[in-house]
Amino acid sequence: MLLALDLVVPWVVLGSEGRFLGAFLFWVVWTAVAIASMFILLLRWRE
Amino acid sequence: MTTTAWAWLAVAIYVVLGFLIAVAARRHAGGGMSEFFLADRRVGGFIAALTYSATTYSAFMLVGLAGLSYRGGVGALGFELTYLCGLFLAVFFLPRFWLVGRKYGYITPTDMLADRYQSKVVGAVAAVLALVFLVPYCAAQLLGIGLLLNGLSGGGIPVILGILVATLIAIAWSRIAGLRSIAWTDAFQAIVMIVSATVLVGFLISELGGLGSFFSRFETEYPELLRVPSGSGMWSLNMFIGLALPWFFFCLSNPQVSQRFFIPASVKAMKQMLGGFLVFGFVYTLIAVLWGFGAKLLVPGLENPDMATPTLLAMPFVPKALALMAMIGIVAAAVSTIDSILLTLSSMWARDIYRGVFNPQASEARELRVGQWVIPIMALIALAFAWQVSIRSGIDFMIAPLSAAASAGLLMVVPSIFGAFYWKRATAPGAISSILSGALLVLVLQVTGLKPLGWWPGVWGLILCVVVFVVVSLVTRAPRDKAEEFMGYAAQKLDSGGYV
Fold this sequence. Notes:
The complex is a heterodimer.
Chain A: H1 2-13, H2 23-42
Chain B: H1 3-26, H2 33-38, H3 45-56, H4 60-72, H5 75-85, H6 88-104, H7 109-116, H8 120-152, H9 159-177, H10 179-207, H11 211-221, H12 237-248, H13 250-253, H14 255-258, H15 267-298, H16 308-313, H17 320-358, H18 364-391, H19 396-410, H20 414-422, H21 428-448, H22 457-474, H23 480-497
Helix pairs in contact in B: 1-9, 1-10, 3-10, 3-15, 3-17, 4-5, 4-15, 5-12, 5-15, 6-23, 7-8, 8-9, 8-17, 8-18, 8-19, 8-21, 9-10, 9-17, 9-18, 10-15, 10-17, 12-19, 17-18, 19-21, 19-22, 21-22
């Protein structure tokens, strides 16, 4: 699902946008959200 | 001073500092396989994060990825960031590797597979897969260093001399104290990499009138490079998936990376390792892509996009000190990857091939000696490969496809890793046949250049690999007792540790 969005949004929705506010921004924000989610999960780890 | 003399001076400072760090690391070293290849599983979070980062990111970033951005635009960013999103796999597998590694004393990821599937052949086959695909990858890194030093010294440093120097550094830093010296020098090199790249891209942006001006000029001059597929014809969906799929599984498929899942000293160190790497990777990726975009604005029209970085660094407006710092940052990225691969391959040779197949009764001391001697041998094979390619243009057909096939080929071990932790029915014949069939298909497709239905070798290889793994496992006998014990232990510990 996450991977599908990673492909569908840039190619189908933003593919023709020739500005930084298109696929560039999507991938940056998408990855930042993914990293934040990973932090939430890994911060739960305990000894 | 001449350009060559400045380049040598920069290399000398880098090498001396690295040696001092490696020798300091040796003072903390003990004996045995676990100590030499895993730093006795006692690496702190900060060092673990930096060695993970330096090992993962090679010269590819500021040369290859910058070149891909230069030629193909924003798809390069998506491709590399998809790799970072693939670190979700590490959230699942890092604690699993770490827990079972401590419980059963695994030295290599393939050692783990051999035990879980109760078959030394599984470990040996997976180790051979890594040898086949990673040695040419090392050679490509060595060649990259040779070409970079040659280019930035104005031809003063011959390519073969650069290759030789890099090989000797990699051998020395891995032999001095094994993973301990590699981890410490990696930490130093990771700092060099990120600092030099940040300063470099900061300078570039300021040359272009600040971030706003840089963005608006790029949007005006190259809007097609902000689209996917790009106006240059790159980044069709097939190409993107073909490149991104092996990268997505990189943290599991590349043994020099997954072996680091065994090394954190504690849960806290494990969290810091993964968290630190995510931040490092995100920043470094953005820098590499922006660097490629900046090169497009400042040195447009290059036929070979891989020359974007060397060409830009050689421009008169780039201060010499900055160019040298960037050069050392790229060399550090390559060396830190090469020495880590050499150490991992030597541990696999000693544990999974020598002890696993040829001499099961070998003592740990003998196994360690074999591993230590394999390091220079592997390095010399990679050097010979790189050297031949540098002097005989006719055989470059070998290194390019093999290097490109490396990530796709290594992907074939991933179903066996998933099976080890999630499928009790998985068997050794399933693992062996899936690895061999998938790798063979990848090699054939890569060498012939065939892309059936437009899909890349890694995609076809993975499909075949998964099908063979499942079908063969279903018709052969699984090591039920081991699977119950292995997965039961992991499940119990994962439950009590708050892991997913």
